[in-house]
UniProtKB/TrEMBL annotation:
Protein name, entry field: Acylphosphatase
SUPFAM superfamilies given in the database record: Acylphosphatase/BLUF domain-like
Family stated for the protein in its record: Belongs to the acylphosphatase family.
Gene Ontology molecular function terms on file: acylphosphatase activity
Organism: Candidatus Terraquivivens tikiterensis
Domain Acylphosphatase-like intervals: 4-91
Reactions mediated catalytically: an acyl phosphate + H2O = a carboxylate + phosphate + H(+)
EC number per UniProt: 3.6.1.7
Catalytic site: 19, 37
Length: 91
């Protein structure tokens, strides 16, 4: 079953390679979508793919890369759209 999740990650999540690590993990799991930094210090991402892989991405976001200190992960499940060809870092 395909799924889509819109995720906001709070804490020390910028300047710790969160975006590049998220892309690496998404590519490994075959998840499509994007990740970007927000001006308020959070990281925002959209994940699409098999529900299990999307759930694994969300679980990974609770830890993040080694130097991240994740305080909160907000997840909004959305209808799958199939709009992405790959996973990108947005700037």
């Amino acid at each position: 079953m395909k799924a889509r999740a819109h995720v906001y990650v709070s804490g020390l999540v910028q300047g710790v390679f969160f975006r590049s690590s998220t892309k690496r993990m998404a590519d490994r799991l075959g998840v499509k979508g994007w990740v970007r930094n927000l001006q308020d210090g959070r990281v925002e991402a959209v994940f699409e793919g098999d529900r299990e892989a999307v759930a694994s991405m969300i679980e990974w976001c609770h830890r993040g890369p080694p130097d991240a200190i994740v305080e909160k992960v907000d997840v909004v499940w959305e209808d799958y759209r199939g709009e992405f060809k790959d996973f990108k870092i947005l700037y």
